[in-house]
Structures are given as structure tokens and as C-alpha cells.
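Minutes, structural biology subgroup

Action item carried over from last meeting: produce the C-alpha cell record for Cysteine desulfurase (Bradyrhizobium centrolobii). EB confirmed the sequence was re-checked against the source entry. Recorded below for completeness.
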Amino acid sequence: MRNRVYLDWNATTPLRAEARAAMLAAWDLIGNPSSVHAEGREARRLVEEARGVLASAVRALPRNVVFTSAGTEANALALSPGLRGPAGGPVERLLVSAVEHASVLAGGRFPADRIGQIRVTRSGVVDLDHLKALLGAGPPALVSIMAANNETGALQPVAEAAAMVHEAGGLLHVDAIQVLGKMPFDIKAAGADLATFSAHKIGGPKGVGALVVAEGVAGLEPVLRGGGQELGRRAGTENVAGIAGFGAAVRVAVRVLPEEAERMTTLRDHLENGLRTVAGATIFSENVQRLPNTVLFTAPGLKAETAVIGFDLEGIAVSSGSACSSGKVQPSHVLSAMGFGPAVAQGAVRLSLGWSTQAEDINRALEAWRKLSNTLLRE
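Output recorded by EB:
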């Protein structure tokens, strides 16, 4: 039996060897990072080293990095009423794009009647005209727009949105979880006031995330209260081993990013060209800038849940969308927001690539698709 092919990297990635080594070393330490003795200081050193690595990767200050249990918690921490920027009053409402991750669509700690949605285009890109209208129709807002969509890979006009939001006296939160390690992300250049990240999307361990806050942003209220960890912004003893693994993964991902992005773009294009030759397959968001590793496609009559099982039986791991919701038989909210009906939204299959993906893996996936199309698409 041939080895399996893993093409679900947007859901989670394998643990990098460097992250594994960093975690093993951290597990041998006995100190609590909040303790002042030598053992505690050694644990603290690992946490602060990782904090510095992530800060450097996104051009932020280490003191503005808050480690959390996951990207979902980081998003919940960011979406807080009362946040203030350098020149404005507290935000009073939340505006989120219609294609955000479920943890952002949930609205954090904003009441439901203070949350509005920003439309997206047919290509899955935020409608800036609609954003402008929403900003002008109420008090200062916290706006949340992801850097890159986890299903389609579409890149969002973050910098342009930031300029509009700041002019209206608001703040911008960017879910940058999918872009870290795949494309450069500079929190200052993006104009983001808050940005969230997750370790397991870049070869770090599951269960570690981070919120990065721009200089001058105040009023962040902790979700978890108790101890004074993370400068009072997130109570609870830090996951030292997980954080060390996060830092190690960031260090490697940033170092190899240029060549890996180019290599994955080549593989992605090869995959898309092959998909299009079978059964009239359509690639979503193909006419806009996307992540170099992400393909979301469908074909007439395709049912995603059946296709995912079929690929799995052929030894290929793919997804029907976000891993947080793919177990539910329902249309993708991303495709629905883009204007596609249930018949199309229920037939979307996502393939996402990573650093160990090779041309042979793409050829295996295309071979499986040709075989499956003969049975799954028969009328």
C-alpha cells in the first residue's frame, strides 16, 4: 500500500522537528515561569525567547505579544468592547467580514445587537465600499478582517481597510493565522491594531496561540482573570513547552518562507491545471490574489462529504472546508457569503499544501480525482 498523501495543511500541520526538539528540552525543566528562583527563570527564558521570535517575525514589540491557548482564544481576547487607539475613544461596536472564521463571527464579548457584517465580492474579497458605508453609519468600531481566508485562500485588502477604519476613529483586528509562514506579515505595514496567530498552522504544537497588539492600543480586558501572567492580560501558568515549540516553528517558517512560497505556488498551479481538465472543475477565488498553498474547487454534481471520503479511501487527506466545521453537513458559510447557492457550497473541496508536499503528491491527488470523478459525478 502506498503512503498516504496529506493535503489538509490549512487545518493543521505536522510538527516540525525543530519544534519537537524545543518542546522536549522544555519538558525537562521543572520551574514555573512566574517563579523567581533559577528554575523559574530558566522556564521564563524560553517563554521570552519565543515571544521575541514571534514579535520579530511580524515586526511588533515583544511586550505586546500575549500567548493564549489557541487562535480561537486569541480572537476572543481581541474582540473586546472598550478598546482604545492612540487618538480615539473606545470602540462601541464590532464589524466583521462575512467570511471570517467561526471564532470571529461569534463576536467575542460584543453583544449581538452591536455586531454587523461586511459583505464580500463574488471572489470572496471584502467589499470596501460596504465597509465605508458601515463605518459612517455609527460610532467608532472595531473591525475584524482576516489576512487570508482559510477556505479559498483569498487575500484581503487589509491595509486599505485599515486606512478607512482609522479615519473613522476605529481599530482593526486581523486574523493572520493562515498567512503566517506562507507570506510576509508586518503588523505596522498592514495597519493592524491587533493580530492573531496559531502555532499548529506553521509546524508548532496544537493548543498554543498568540494575540499581538500594536503599540498605543489600550483597554484590552482579559478573558481569563486571576494571576498576573502575560502582563495581566491572560491569567494562567504559561504552556512553556508549547510556547517554546511555537517559537521554534516561527523561526524556521520565516527562514524558509521565500523559497517555500515560490515552490508551493508552482505546485498549486500544477494542481489547479490538472483539476480543470476533469469534469469542468471550478476553482474558487481564482481571479484574485491567494495564498500560495490553497485550492478550493468544485464540479457540477459533486458532494463534498462524499468526495472527502472518496479521496480518503484513495489515500489522500483533503477537507470540505474549515476543520472547525467540516464535520457538520452544511454549506460553507464562506461560499454562501460569496453568493453561491447551497448546491455549489455543499460541493466544495479544499486541498492545501505544505513544506513536505511534492509533485508526486499532487500527481497522486489528480489521479484520485480522475478516478473519483467517474463515479461521483455520474448522473
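Discussion: The mean pLDDT is 94.
Next step: EB to file the record with the rest of the batch.
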